[in-house]
Amino acid sequence: MPSSDTMTFGSAMPAVSVHRKRRSLAAHATAYALSAPALFLMGLLLIGPVLVVLMMSFTDYSLGNASFEWVGLANYAEMLEDDVFVKAIGNTLLYVGIVVPASVFLGLGTAMLIESLTFGRAFWRAVYFLPVMATLMAMAIVWEFMLNARFGMISQLLTLLGLPAKNWLQETSTALPMLMVIGIWQALGFNMVLFMAGLTSIPRDLYEALELDGGSSSWSRFWTVTWPLLSPVTLFVVVITAIRSFQVFDPVHVLTKGGPNNASMVLIYQLYQEGFDFFRSAYAAGLTVVFLVFIFAITWVKSRVMEKNVHY
Amino acid sequence: MRRLLKTAVAAATLMLAGANFAAAETTIEVQYPYSHLFKTTYEKIVADFEKANPDIKVKLRAPYESYEDASQTVLKEAITNRLPDVTFQGLNRQRILVEKGIAQPLDQFIAKETDFEKDGYHQAMLDLSTFNGKVHGLPFSVSLPVGYYNMDVLKKAGWDKPLPTSWDEVIEVCKAIKASGQTVDTMFWGWNITGNWFWQSLNWSRDNTMLDPTETKVNFGNDAGKWSMRTFAKLVKECDMPNNEWKEAMANFSAGKVGMFFWSTSALQKIADDSTGLYTLKTGPFPDVAEGGGLPAGGNAGLVLAKDPETAAASWKFLKFATSGQGAAYVAQTTGYMPPNKAANEVILKDFYAQNPNKFTAVKQLPLLRDWYAFPGENGLKITKVIEDSMQSIASRERVEEPDAVLKDMVEDTQKLLPKSGS
């Protein structure tokens, strides 16, 4: 976990004497000199583009134009009036709100189930991890076939059971839920692997100690040992899944294009559509800024919570 | 060994010299969309052109994936100064390049041509690429909406009259198909082609324009617009049209699972190939085009982007070659599109159409050729999305009962995205 590094850094800095301070100043200079190339590249490749995007969001630039004008907050004002944007934000939050808890708890459950197996662990691990290994783009096409209303596996299965088959991705009521199912399916394997790593690092003797203290039901084992000790992993998993869910794009692009009628429109897809389909670069830049704000917010919450509430 | 090396070096030098010699002439770079449709066409045209013009070399860049990709790429290349000399763009994507000053007007070249009209360049064809009163491109391949019919399904439904000529007749056929108990969809109507092409078809068929002549006010809120939206809603409802994505709809029709399919003629080659041996395919004119009405052209046009006079002249030569005479004829022979060129259609391709009556349907409609209208301003492409969403709310049955209300919303949303008057 990245946090353990910061911990060691922190503890390696006791109160310093003047003598030491001078030395550390020299050390600082060397440190800055050594990290200069990295800092330079970071500025050029990360911070620079973000600043350019931020500036562009205050203009009326559209792709291919020779010039632009400053329009202040006009793009942001337009967002508030833009039904598609409102829908995209709502859908994105709903997507994150469902995919994150579902894939985290299912991932944890799967990890514990597989860990409890006496044999066949590697097999199940591989099975659940497959969706992570496969390109989501390609997998989206597989889903497209499975969900096809006429010859898709799912529709045929439903018809066999006497249930009505639907045109899942073409209907307003089912398009977004289907994307969520695919999102959960994809994130589950990844979360499972992380939880497994967390589970194996829980010392066995804690369970033994618990048994001596009289807690032997599997529930108390989970509640008093497993869950608290997994909390750093859980937080990490939640944050990573949340960020990845905010970024959902590939399945939307391949399967629904945000449709029907923007029913499955999400923030990143709208950004793509405005920027690359409609060539409204400035507006797309504004959407990017909104997206970045969300990501920064999650990251900030993560670092705050990480410092305070996670038990080690 | 040494000798071998020497010979090789000598050969290489000779080849380089040869290449140099050719490079001393003008080289033009050309880029076009949809390699799966046009690859053979362009290869044939370039080969013929280079034979006829040994002083010009044509370099084909890797084709654009789609019309969207084509305009996006050109817009990006305009910033980095890497534009090709000739680019082929979707007819409704020319305007954006003209508005941004990337496409060059061609009038100076046309003025120098002596037999331009005789070469088959008629007014309706040039109108497709005319913006601000100036010709900016030459249409290369055009398509028009037509009806595709699965004659086996129609026969089983007991339809022995001629192919439908009005939407009411189409609905009659739908009912006959349904009554015959066949397990097929009655019809699919291509509302989802680029989101607005069929909307323009219905409107053009009543000679109704998208905007008023000043291009500041939405025009399709009028009676003809209402007729168009109501017609669409009626077709969806009474024909029980499936809410399919277009690829699926086309695959279903090709496989013989749909009775009628209203679509662009450009798909003819593919549908004909896919349906061979399954059923008898026939094409018929787009129903219900009123007297004085027309149909929007799909397809693409070549634009000259080269600014250097010598390269521009060579580019013009190539563009003209590709859009007239044998160059144009290749379009009909190798694709489902037709060349808009009159001379090519009427003279060179006469026998070809006699043997391919299905391809002739669209040619017969050529006098109806109208603009594939591109909305003005920075939001032009976003407007097509507004129209697509509105049409979809009917196709998905959500608002199929209230076409007038859908139209009203669509008018309002479109109006908001138009450039304010005076700008």
UniProtKB/TrEMBL annotation, chain B:
Cellular component terms (Gene Ontology): periplasmic space
Q: Which UniProt keywords apply?
A: Signal
Q: Where does the record place it?
A: Periplasm
**One Pfam short name:** SBP_bac_8
Q: What residue range is the signal peptide?
A: 1-22
Q: Which InterPro entries match?
A: Bact_solute-bd_prot1, SBP
Quote the PANTHER family the UniProt record gives: ARABINOSE-BINDING PROTEIN-RELATED (PTHR43649), DIACETYLCHITOBIOSE BINDING PROTEIN DASA (PTHR43649:SF12)
Q: According to its UniProt record, which protein family does this protein belong to?
A: Belongs to the bacterial solute-binding protein 1 family.
Q: What name does this protein carry?
A: ABC transporter substrate-binding protein
Its source organism is Hwanghaeella grinnelliae
